[in-house]
Design brief:
This protein is of the alpha+beta class. It folds into two domains: 94 residues, Phosphorylase Kinase, domain 1, CATH 3.30.200; 199 residues, Transferase(Phosphotransferase) domain 1 (Transferase(Phosphotransferase), domain 1, Orthogonal Bundle). Helix content is 38%, strand content 22%. It is built from nine helices and twelve strands. A hairpin with a 5-residue loop joins strand 3 and strand 4.
Length: 307
């Protein structure tokens, strides 16, 4: 097994892991590559540092969501624990630890980055096959009991790929009840602030950029993100990534709904129409996940019949 003495060891519910390397870091957490000392299996350990009870509740809620939504295309929680220290006169500090599977193949974004360098576009049928599996995972969130959930941060970097190329939705840190009735400017600002912290701009639905004082938000925020994901699977980046990289206003670009397809596109009008079908600025005009799956299946069958 090698020498563990120079590695940091973390114990979670009696199981000891040694941390090998940092896989990623966000505003609220760090992901570490770790190896279980007993089994030698590799895992990803998510460390969520909590500076107050609200942070801690958010971290524990993420753990709860792993238990609520189980699907082959959604990451599972292997184990979790809460380490808390709150002493008189000391600042509150706690840490939520979540043990997750490790996907050595990386994410869909990693795959697209490699393909972009080689300008190696995936065949349309392969794209739609992967996309349908992602949609099935999203459907599990939208059908959650006792209330529908929305992922709220669907993007290519949050889709892991298994060794046999199965897509798995990861990072449940932004998951929230899907259906929210906003009443008043305070509630609107609060939801908008949460979205700005936890929902990536190039994949964020228009209604989350400028939340109205009296409105209803539902699971169709995820449908917008799915449209951006399908676009990225075809052209390597979200339709609004270029705006983000230039430093221009993504909010204005998204809320205007202006999106173009490359003139030299190798994909046909059916694919373009499917993407446009999801990228409706008005969420009321946006389809639900069932309609997206049905339409994607129709396009897939049509394309497969032409192969």
């Amino acid at each position: 097994m090698g020498c563990f003495c120079s590695k940091k060891i973390v114990t979670i519910n009696g199981e000891r892991y040694y941390e090998i390397d940092q896989l990623g870091e966000g505003g609220f957490s760090t992901i570490m590559l770790a190896q279980a000392i007993h089994s030698c299996k590799y895992y990803a350990i998510k460390r969520i540092i909590c500076h107050d009870l609200d942070d801690q509740d958010i971290g524990l809620k993420e753990v709860e969501y792993y238990g609520l939504v189980k699907h082959p295309n959604i990451i599972e929680c292997v184990d979790s624990s809460l380490n808390a220290s709150c002493q008189p006169g000391a600042n509150f500090m706690s840490e939520v630890l979540i043990v997750l599977p490790y996907y050595k193949k990386g994410t869909l974004q990693n795959e697209l980055d490699l393909r972009r360098i080689a300008m190696d576009h995936m065949p349309a049928t392969e794209i739609l096959s992967l996309f349908l599996q992602i949609c099935e995972g999203v459907k599990a969130f939208h059908e959650a009991v006792p209330e529908p959930l929305a992922h709220r941060d669907l993007k290519t970097a949050n889709i892991a790929l298994t060794d046999d190329n199965k897509p798995v939705i990861i990072d449940l840190g932004s998951v929230a009840p899907a259906r929210v009735k906003v009443s008043g400017s305070c509630a609107a600002h609060r939801l908008q602030d949460v979205a700005s912290e936890r929902c990536s701009m190039p994949y964020r639905a228009p209604e989350l950029f400028n939340v109205e004082s009296h409105c209803s938000i539902d699971e169709r925020t995820d449908i917008w993100s799915l449209g951006c994901i399908l676009y990225a699977m075809c052209y390597f980046k979200s339709p609004f990534d270029a705006v983000y990289e230039r430093g221009d206003s993504v909010a204005l670009a998204v809320m205007s709904g202006v999106m173009t397809f490359p003139k030299s596109s190798i994909y046909n009008e059916e694919i373009h129409n499917l993407i446009s079908y999801m990228l409706k600025v008005n969420p009321v005009e946006r389809p639900y996940i069932y309609d997206v799956i049905q339409r994607t299946q129709d396009v897939y069958r049509k394309l497969e019949g032409n192969v």
